[in-house]
Write a structure and sequence with these properties.
By secondary structure, the protein is α+β, with helices and mostly antiparallel strands. It contains six helices and 16 strands. The two termini are about 35 Å apart. Bound molecules: 2-oxoglutaric acid and fe (ii) ion.
């Protein structure tokens, strides 16, 4: 089998074919990894894998860490979160917080000291319509900034906390596991592997920009929000069963369209991946 990489747009997204994730040799994995660095999001179609095989593949990218929310972990492989599972309450009604998880553009783990390197979803149940995931390049967001703004951002850091500005999702974490001190990340983030600069920014989790008066910080956050999504730098993924999609959290934003029929199943095996050395 030969690996083929088909790009999905000028900035972001590629489909990788000719691979079987159950049996990847080192040279083939290196090609997949390279495609991922080049395109930030890669889609591997038509895979039939067990939780253990999935974990193996994910570990090629880094250290797989369990999500802090404990009640959605896969019973056999706790590093895997069952995204979209347990959506119905005991009375049969739908928990819209689970249904709409990931709605609104964000990056994953901005509340961690070292934000996640990557996130991967493997699709095990898809709805009859809707339920896409959208990805935007933060390299493109950075490139779109006026030079003066790029210069102003050098050295500035954002302060993030789980739940962030809107405190959404905080109820998923048990009280004793919640962190109260914000963590700091640079707004101009140089990707450690590609050397390219990305705008690192997550408007809903960012509390303030360190060192700026509150009004100025709020104004800058609003200004940056306007640059996040560049129209030619978005890849919209329409899920098929058996898709494995991994995105680079160091150079992308993403969101769930959250528009599928709520009574239908939409389940992914989800993993968070850290840099090995961050562990
Ligand atoms: O369900 C999706 O399409 C994306 C959810 C999300 O944001 C995530 O898993 O990090
Ligand atoms: Fe996410």
């Amino acid at each position: 089998m030969t690996v083929q990489v088909r790009r999905m747009g000028p900035w972001i997204g590629a489909e990788v074919t000719g691979v079987d994730l159950r049996a990847l040799d080192e040279a083939t994995f290196a090609q997949v990894y390279r495609a991922w660095l080049d395109h930030a999001v890669i889609v591997v179609r038509d895979q039939q894998i067990t939780p253990a095989q999935y974990l193996d593949y994910c570990e090629g990218f880094g250290k797989v860490v369990p999500h802090p929310s404990k009640n959605t972990r896969h019973p056999e492989v706790p590093q895997i979160t069952l995204l979209g599972a347990n959506k119905r309450r005991a009375d049969g009604s739908i928990n819209m917080a689970i249904y709409a998880r990931g709605e609104g553009y964000h990056t994953d783990g901005s509340y961690e000291k070292v934000p996640y390197k990557a996130t991967q979803l493997y699709s095990v149940a898809i709805p009859s319509r809707g339920g896409d995931t959208l990805f935007a390049s933060t390299y493109a967001a950075w490139d779109a900034l006026p030079e003066a703004l790029k210069a102003r951002l050098q050295g500035l850091q954002g302060a993030y906390i789980y739940g962030g500005r809107t405190a959404d999702g905080i109820e998923r974490i048990e009280q004793q596991d919640r962190v109260t001190e914000p963590v700091l990340h640079p707004l101009a983030r140089v990707h450690p592997e590609t050397g390219r600069t990305a705008l690192y920014f997550d408007p809903n989790k960012l509390l303030y920009i360190k060192g700026l008066p509150a009004a100025e910080s709020d104004a800058l956050i609003e200004e940056l929000r306007g640059y996040m999504i560049q129209p030619d730098a978005v890849y919209r993924h329409q899920w098929r069963r058996g898709d494995a999609v991994i995105w680079d959290n160091r150079c992308t934003y993403h969101k769930a369209a959250a528009d599928y029929p709520p009574e239908e199943e939409r389940i992914h095996w989800r993993v968070s991946i850290q840099e090995w050395e961050a562990a």
